[in-house]
Amino acid sequence: MSEPLPEPAPDGARALFRVHQLSKRFGATTVVDGLSFDIRAGECLGVIGPNGAGKTTTLRMCLGQVTPDGGSIRAFGLEVPRQVREVKARVGVVTQFDSLDPDFSCAENLRVFARYFGLPPAQVEPRIPELLAFAALQAKANARPGELSGGMRRRLSLARALVNDPDLLLLDEPTTGLDPQARHLMWERLKLLLQKGKSILLTTHFMDEAERLCDRLIVLDHGRKIAEGTPRGLIAEHLEPEVVEAYGEGAAAMAEAHGALAQRVERSGDTVFFYLQDAKPLLARMADAPRLRSLHRPANLEDLFLKLTGRQIRDEA
User: Fold this and answer.
1) Domain layout of the chain by residue ranges
2) CATH for 240-298, options being 3.30.300, 3.30.70, 1.10.155, 2.40.160
3) Is this structure's pTM higher than 0.85?
4) CA 228 – CA 217 distance, rounded (Å)
5) What is the DSSP letter of 167?
6) CA 285 from chain center: how many Å?
7) b (16+ CB within 10 A) / e for 91-110
8) Is the CATH number of domain 15-230 3.40.50.300?
9) Fewer CB atoms inside 10 A, N or C side of the chain?
10) Alpha helices, DSSP H, located in the chain
């Protein structure tokens, strides 16, 4: 028996996409463990977590590429994977790695991809110049992907994902490997899509990207959701408001002598992190150590990520 349609979200917006108690195992390893979330119209939901946390596997299950071992996925009132063809007609996807056809020009990549959706040429042809303009690739219509920079290829991948005018975009680390200018241009384009009412599910390792784009975040670790909320709300819930980073000569001695002024003290290499409700007393002590270098700043998502998931390097899963 099919699940009922999603109930309206608390703010009155109906969830377009709903995952409930999703689980996936590969051999003896549980990769996704009882994961639930929903996405509403016009919302960007971010998924952050260390390597191997289950982010990409979750997206692949949402696309019907991997069969869950438990739980349910519903998109637009349809079941995944049973009705995945109908769901994909309303979804756009940008994967971690470009899958553009190297033998086709930018315009041809869009044109050929549209055929997968059965879109008639009369509908597609007027959209191609619009999509190239959206991706800031008007002058590259006849260029092949191998002639483009990394940022251009990512923008072309985004334009291709929009060929079918999707209601929901699934973006798996869409700005990995891009320089700052290319990342900022990609962010501008994603913000425009949100303003037009599109919904986005975004996985990212860039905390500034998550804070700029996401209305809500979920934090995954070892396949489980360990936190959920707005970026600023999560920071306020889990962190002290101020951070002082001390590094170089005297940092360790400062931690030993005045660590009690902070609510938490952490060390990473030659840097000491002081997490505080009020940094003024510690900064006054630091003024007496002129050779000590320091940075005073508000707490951010990177602090949250490290507190919840740890500072230990994770190998790729």
Assistant:
1) 15-230, 240-298
2) 3.30.70
3) yes
4) 6
5) S
6) 39
7) bbbbbeebebeeeebbbebb
8) yes
9) N
10) 55-62, 84-88, 106-115, 121-124, 127-134, 150-161, 180-195, 207-213, 231-238, 251-258, 280-286, 301-309
Structure tokens at 80: 């995944």
Q: Give the integer Cα–Cα distance in Å for 268 and 281.
A: 23
Question: What span, in angstroms and rounded, lies between the C-alpha atoms of 272 and 201?
Answer: 35
Per-residue pLDDT of the chain (317 residues; tens, 9 = 90+): 333 333 444 444 578 999 999 999 999 999 999 999 999 999 999 999 998 899 999 999 999 999 999 999 999 999 999 999 999 999 999 998 888 999 999 999 999 999 999 999 999 999 999 999 999 999 999 999 999 999 999 999 999 999 999 999 999 999 988 899 999 999 999 999 999 999 999 999 999 999 999 999 999 999 999 999 999 999 999 999 999 999 988 899 999 999 999 999 999 888 999 999 999 999 999 998 888 999 999 999 999 999 999 877 655 54
